[in-house]
Design goal:
Length: 160
């Protein structure tokens, strides 16, 4: 949930007009520890090969043809259950320290739009540390080639 932190007096109106008056303030991202996954189709669907960058770990772009994002239903499975998760398979790039081989499975928690930006929140299904479990992704509706991923559980730091 993205929301401004605010305290209302007991007799104050909780209407959308009251809450939305703070639209230009910094937003905080809140994640439920007891989340219920949602269908990922509105955020991601399909299989893609991808290249990745992480300016905090390495310089340049790792473009391994085996790196893959997979978000699609498995034949013969229940539609709603399998579409609540997606996998990102990272592959090491030769000569690039900081790149790695690994698979991360995410559960979709929800998505929202801010202008042309499409945000979606996820939980790493194999991570127990709260500060590492939750992430945000960002797509721009004008450019389907790039997806941003937060390095913390904050959505307000992402840019396209």
């Amino acid at each position: 949930m993205e929301s401004v932190c605010m305290t209302l007096n007991p007799n104050e109106d909780e209407s959308p007009d009251k809450i939305c008056q703070f639209q230009d303030t910094q937003l905080n991202t809140l994640f439920s520890e007891n989340y219920i996954p949602v269908n990922c189709r509105s955020s991601l669907e399909g299989v893609w090969q991808f290249a990745y960058q992480n300016r905090f770990r390495f310089t340049g772009e790792c473009n391994n043809p085996e790196a893959q994002i997979k978000s699609c239903q498995t034949a013969g499975t229940q539609f709603l259950i399998t579409n609540q998760k997606f996998n990102i398979t990272y592959k090491k790039c030769p000569g690039m320290t900081g790149t790695f081989d690994g698979v991360v499975e995410y559960s979709c928690l929800g998505d929202w739009f801010v202008d042309k930006n499409h945000f979606f929140a996820v939980a790493n299904t194999k991570e127990s540390r709260k500060d590492e479990k939750y992430r945000c992704f960002l797509k721009n509706r004008d450019d389907d080639l790039y997806i941003g991923v937060s390095i913390t559980a904050e959505c307000n730091t992402l840019q396209t």
